[in-house]
Amino acid sequence: MQYDPIKRTLGNFFNQSPFLRKLFYRLLDLLLLRAWHIHLELRKWMQNAPNSPKILDAGMGFGQYTYYMAKHLKNAQILAVDVKEEQIADCSNFFKQINYKHVNFEIADLTKLKMAPQFDLVLCVDVMEHILEDVTVFKNYVAAMNKGGMLLISTPSDQGGSDVHDDGETSFIEEHVRDGYNIKEIENKLLESGFSKVEARYSYGAPGKIAWRLSMKYPILMLGVSKLFFIILPIYFLLVYPIAFILNYLDAHSNHPTGTGLIVKAWK
Question: What's the pLDDT tens digit per position in 212-226?
């Protein structure tokens, strides 16, 4: 299904005020299992982060992770980039409204990113599954990072990522150019691109798969049928979210032998 129209509809509704935008970010933090995993890794990184780190949010989308980092790292300099001009304009306007002067936004194609070494952290969430020239992007990240800097990636795995389980199936989200990475494949690509150390683990294990269907897939499918489902979504989440919350917690704090997502860390 086409995911972008639904994202635009949600964005337009929550863009009506900074309060609604912050509420939207909070809802995404609670609902999206990947946010649980990313926040966990970011908190670990922040414990030993440089005093005034420079961070690149590569493909920031709605800007929820940019906001999370900017809120917790007031002394950081954060550059958030995206290929979509409307996303850049939207996020730039919101961050100006809340007076977060340590964040800047730029339109950028990650396959053509050319920057001098400067970043201590590069964050890349739900991006690589949309880019065919992945090795080119990995090399661009290496070139833009300081020695010892870390790249943090969240992306679907080949163990059912994008909700694809058989050769004949297509991605639940049609904008994906690949259905998921093999864990060894992405490790090898990062090492070949110039990273010195890579750690990868599965996310969306057994509890996460159920949580994702309850809190994301089924609501999106409903909205794809009719926008009238916006009316019943609050009732749906009141009933379903307590279960999804427990499942999200279990997934984020467990080691999984397999899973439909990957959390990957690589160091220059």
Answer: 999 888 888 887 787
